[in-house]
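Hallway conversation turned thread

IA: we were arguing at lunch whether anyone had actually written out Transposase component end to end. Turns out nobody had. So, for the record, here is the sequence (506 residues) and right after it the structure tokens. Reply here if something looks off.
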Amino acid sequence: MKMLPDLSQLTHEQLLEFTRQLAMQHQSLAQSNQELEKSNQQLDTKVQHLEVSNQQLDAQVQHLSILNQKYEHELALFKQHKFGSKNEHLTAKQIHLWDEAVEEDIAAVDLELERLNADKTDAATQKAKANKPKRRLLPDHLHTIRIEHEPTSTQCACGCTLRRIGEDISEKLHFRPAQFYKEQHVRGKWVCDQCDTLTQQAMPAYVIDKGIASPELLSHVLVSKYADHLPLYRQRLIYQRAGIDLSRSTLSDWIGRCGVELEPLANALKQVVLQQRVIHADETPVTIMRMGENEKKPKKGYVWAYATTQYNPVQAVIYDFQDSRSGQHAEEFLNGWQGHLVCDDYSGYKARFKSGDVIEVGCMAHARRKFHELHVTGKSQIAEQALLMIQKLYAIEAELRKKTDGTAEHRREYRQQHSQPVMQQLYEWLNQHYLTVPSSSPTAKAINYSLKRWPALSRYLDDGNLPIDNNWAENSMRPWALGRKNWLFAGSLRSGQRAANIMTLI
């Protein structure tokens, strides 16, 4: 640092020169200070721009992260739907061909072991026989043919006569293939010799009066097609093996006529269902093949199912086949009906809820499915926590089904005591975690699905006549899902409606 001179030693001219230099330095410093301030302002502006740019980049990164999470979720969900298990949980009913092959192999090995041990009497062999499960008894309602096996001679080798002291009975399950037989209706002709009056008994009424098919045969054809899902061409091959040649056009004619005759019965059953105050509703697509020069492409139709609950003494389901998924079809079917409708969140039912005559009952299975999809695709810890709480609710319902007192009031009291605390815990959990996850993430959407429908989802707690979910209706759609794999499509809107009437009664 430059030392200042001793001013007392300077002359007048030196002081003037020193003052001039100080003024110049002050001016230079002032100019430098202005430049620094200007540069500082520019830097502040750049910092502000960088901060804004950084915020924008952070937002973009967050957006891309959420978008990437969404795509990963959708990709994993696609892989799960394409290659994974189709059900949310495995049950004893899910028997695959591989399982059947394993059981067949086990049976073959058991037989080989039995043959190897046929001449052995050691303790291990006897213990193995004792541990083998007992065969289930054949039901008593089966027609029984008794075949007796007695000795050809009752004379003993010692010369005495044998005396019968009892018997051992073993049963075999027999099968007799379906048999056709001819039923002749003979109507005698009676005449009066005096007045020539001719009398003859009239034939009883049949579904097809002048046809060859009996009611039993018509029922078999209908059940084979719509319950066992055997197309008519397959049925024809089966009948040919029995020596009966029925053309496919003949079988089609029978089904068409039966559909017309059975429609009043289906309509009567519909009125019975509409008298119930709790109804399930669901819908599933079925392809319609449209005939005509200008209608070469198939159209997607829908079959709607309206079913009574599992608690109702009247067990029935009405199928309503329509050419679209428009909510107008549900509006027309339920026109004038009042009660609780158990359904998913499809908007087609919303018009009935707005009127106030119909009260929505939500489907816990759909809420669970949202978290299950997250769990199997992303292994989300949050989803697993929700699934565990929902699993408790279903465990309570399983316990309820075991109770001897199956009244609605008992179900309501039991749910209030056991299910209500779990539902409250789930509700608080949903609200808590909804605030901690990105609003557009799959997890937030799963949580929001339940929160938006919470009044409908929790309604079953206050009424023992209401179910926890809509699985009862979804299960009633399985015949249509199986049918699609066999007959693939409905030939027309009319044939779809005919199939709906027949399957309603079957």
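OS: looked through it. Confidence is low (pLDDT under 50) at residues 89-99.
IA: good, adding that to the notes. The radius of gyration is 41 Å.
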